[in-house]
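Ticket #4471: structure export looks truncated?
Reporter: QA, pipeline team
Priority: medium

Steps to reproduce: submit the single chain below to the structure queue and open the exported record.
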Amino acid sequence: MRRNSFISREQDYGLRITAYLAGLPKGEFICVPKLAEKLFIPSKFAARIIHKLKKAGITGSIRGKYGGVFLKSEPQNLSLYDVLITIGFKAKLNDCLNENFVCELTFGCKFHSFFVNEEKLLMEKLQKTKISEFILHEL
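Actual output as written to the record:
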């Protein structure tokens, strides 16, 4: 049985890739196939994620046979939220928080206000928590 996750597999991989790149010494980079192998991510999937991160200015790359990718952003300034949003994070804690959801009970519903508050707290925490707290050193 397949379960839906709040954080998708692609977003999870984006966090891992970013945390790994944050652990590289300044000026060093790693080729995508080697990075994918170290993090147990399919190489094509890793390349697609890195492309999204590069497009957002989070990662950079050096082309060529001996090229690779590196973290362009400072890990202490890069939040988990930044990475998740770049990889397409749009999750809501409850359907009733979605913009186009229509519920007759919204104004008197205690569940709605509970989920609004919890989602706000979670988003704030994701924005405050930096990649530097999750640096993956050599695996």
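Status: closed, not a bug. The export was complete when the record was re-opened. Leaving a note from the reviewer for reference: The helical segments are 9-22, 32-39, 43-55, 80-86, 110-128.
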